[in-house]
Amino acid sequence: MDKSIYSPNLHVYTDGPAVARAFADHLVDKLEERGEGPFFWALSGGSTPKLLFKLLAAEYQDTIDWSRLHFFWGDERMVPYDDAESNYGEVKNLLFDHVPVVKEQIHPVPTDLEPQAAAEAYAATITELLPQNSDGLPIFDLNMLGMGGDGHTASIFPDNMALLTSDAICAVATHPESGQKRVTLTGPVIDASDEVIFLITGSSKTLRVAQIVNREQLADSFPAAHINPTSGNLHWFLDRAAASEVGY
Ligand SMILES: O=C(O)[C@H](O)[C@@H](O)[C@H](O)[C@H](O)COP(=O)(O)O
């Protein structure tokens, strides 16, 4: 990792709910800033996003013009949508069933297909709907990511760092412990996003966050440490627990 260029904008909040609220308010600001037109948002799975989806459903019904939003996923588990493991199913239960989203603007990974076919079909949808940059890569307006305890992000795991530089838009990944098949956006597509925001909370992430933000040697082995959007709009929304070993 080129230590001279990797420096996420850190935002530290009291706890998980405060991180979720900060993200929700940022989304409102981003939509206002854009004025009008479609807004392409890639969601992530994980625990902190659950807090966000519940908050949006409870308090942001009237604050957000839901008709502008197109929903995608940074990664998805290859399970049925009604499976407890489904990232899409999670958002449907916590958010989509409670706010006036436009059904046709929800673009889940087609997990009823075989993994490779699902990745190709999902990539075709993304290519069809999103604007592209000068490299022909789709531009998400906002890419929301988490970071696993092993430093993975989306479903780019430490044992498959090649996905960080893949020329595919989406790829099939395998969870290193469970063997679960996933579809994930690749590193170059994530880095083509107009803005990338990591939501990282809890003491289980303290060491990893410190290793990456303090640019310790080990950082190179964590996929999350390599996400660096060409826009420069890289933000880490942390709670105090996750940020407690960051050297300012
Ligand atoms: O599908 C997934 O599992 C997520 O996309 C994954 O990348 C997640 O963001 C991290 O594992 C962090 O999850 P937590 O926030 O629950 O620690």
From TrEMBL:
Q: Name one Pfam family in it.
A: Glucosamine_iso
* Group of enzyme by EC: hydrolase
Would I find Ion transport among this entry's keywords? Answer: no
GO annotation, biological process: carbohydrate metabolic process; pentose-phosphate shunt
Listed pathway(s) = Carbohydrate degradation; pentose phosphate pathway; D-ribulose 5-phosphate from D-glucose 6-phosphate (oxidative stage): step 2/3
Is Ligase included in the keywords of this UniProt record? no
Q: Where is the Glucosamine/galactosamine-6-phosphate isomerase domain?
A: 18-236
Q: According to the lineage, what is the superkingdom? A: Bacteria
**What Gene Ontology molecular-function terms does this entry list?**
6-phosphogluconolactonase activity
Function, in words: Hydrolysis of 6-phosphogluconolactone to 6-phosphogluconate.
Which family does this protein fall into? Answer: Belongs to the glucosamine/galactosamine-6-phosphate isomerase family. 6-phosphogluconolactonase subfamily.
| Name assigned to this protein | 6-phosphogluconolactonase
Gene from which this protein is expressed:
pgl
